[in-house]
Specification:
Structural class: mainly alpha
Shape: flat
Number of strands: 0
Strand content: under 5%
Radius of gyration: 28 Å
Number of helices: 15
Order of helices and strands: HHHHHHHHHHHHHHH
Low-confidence stretches: 5-23
Largest sheet: none
């Protein structure tokens, strides 16, 4: 065989010979699979946000009440004045035209103008958002840490007295309506009952007139009861998920191997069992992060907390359609974004996901 025939032979059998097995092949396939996974999750999130946008428009138009009559303050007005109000806010247009106008503006960040406040909806949301993040963010950190800690302790001592007490208390508090627990705490610790004096404010975010560090202490004083309500109601879910996931891991072979090597029981739990068991808890944490932006409407209403939840309640009572629609979209979008973020992070924690 001549040297000239060698290239032809190589081309015939499928191309140039490889020097050895491909090293980049498996990595490239894994990267491609992950990119497809990311694209699918982002596409699903976009569809979900579009569905939320459509739902937020049509759902709240089923609420009884005429926002135009609310804007007149109950005064006797002529039909011409009512028509002028409806024309000002676009309520005289056909529903389909109102819908296309709403979607077009929402895609540019314009959520409309509030009927009752006569201000852009996005401005009212931006104004109330820090208050909600302060309340629910503080509660989120506390009930997540408490739930993970008690959940791991309960699972590691499965069937013991501590496990039964923790699980029973978590289930009891988790089943209690948050508004009922909030009212109960107000009666006991704000109004005072029997020998217990009123120690905390009944509502609001501040007493007024305080500055500097005194203002910080005043806000913290007002935070105690609403945060306690949220922590008591919410920590049980994290505890139960963490406990269940850790119980599933406790019979695994790698834990038996770790113990056989002479590792202390506490070290086996902290370094091996808990990190693997926290994967389902990570998803729950991101879901709760989305709910943190939404706030807890009933708790904020009970304690008169000036956040997004209280604003949503005010808007529903009118009904202030642009404000209700905007808040609903923000609430739902926060949950969708956090769920998508959890889906994107999950393959980094468990490489089997997304392949």
């Amino acid at each position: 065989m001549t040297a000239d025939a060698t290239p032809a032979l190589v081309e015939t059998i499928g191309g140039p010979a490889q020097a050895g097995p491909s090293v980049r092949g498996p990595r490239a396939r894994t990267r491609t699979a992950y990119l497809r996974y990311v694209a699918g999750k982002l596409g699903g999130a976009a569809v979900s946000l579009l569905a939320v946008l459509v739902t937020s428009f049509f759902l709240f138009r089923l609420i009884p009440g005429d926002p135009v009559k609310y804007m007149t303050g109950g005064r006797q007005v002529s039909a011409e004045q009512l028509a002028a109000y409806r024309r000002e806010f676009g309520l005289d247009l056909p529903v389909w035209e109102q819908f296309t106008d709403y979607c077009g503006k929402a895609l540019t960040g314009d959520l409309g103008t509030s009927y009752q406040f006569r201000a852009p909806v996005i401005d009212k949301i931006t104004e109330a958002l820090p208050n909600t993040l302060l309340l629910t963010g503080t509660a989120f950190v506390l009930y997540t840490a408490l739930g993970i800690f008690l959940g791991t302790r309960a699972a590691w001592r499965n069937g013991g007295l501590g496990d039964r007490l923790n699980t029973g208390l978590a289930l009891t508090l988790y089943s209690i309506p948050s508004f009922w627990l909030g009212l109960l705490l107000i009666i006991v610790f704000s109004v005072g009952i029997g020998p217990i004096p009123g120690l905390f404010p009944t509502g609001g975010m501040e007493s007024g007139g305080e500055e500097g560090f005194a203002y910080v202490l005043d806000v913290a004083h007002h935070l105690v009861l609403p945060v306690l309500t949220l922590v008591a109601v919410e920590y049980g879910q994290t505890l139960l998920v963490t406990r269940s996931a850790l119980l599933d891991e406790m019979g695994s072979d790698y834990l038996t191997t770790a113990r056989a090597k002479g590792l202390r029981d506490d070290l086996v739990r902290r370094r091996h069992a808990v990190p693997n068991a926290l994967l389902p808890t990570v998803t729950l944490i991101f879901i709760n992060l989305g709910r943190t932006v939404a706030g807890v409407i009933l708790v904020e209403t009970v304690f008169s907390w000036p956040g997004l939840g209280g604003l949503f309640y005010q808007a529903l009572s009118v009904p202030d359609l642009p404000l209700v629609q905007g808040l609903f979209f923000v609430f739902a979008a926060a949950v969708v974004v956090m769920n998508t973020l959890a889906d994107l992070i999950y393959p980094l924690l468990d490489p089997r996901v997304g392949r």
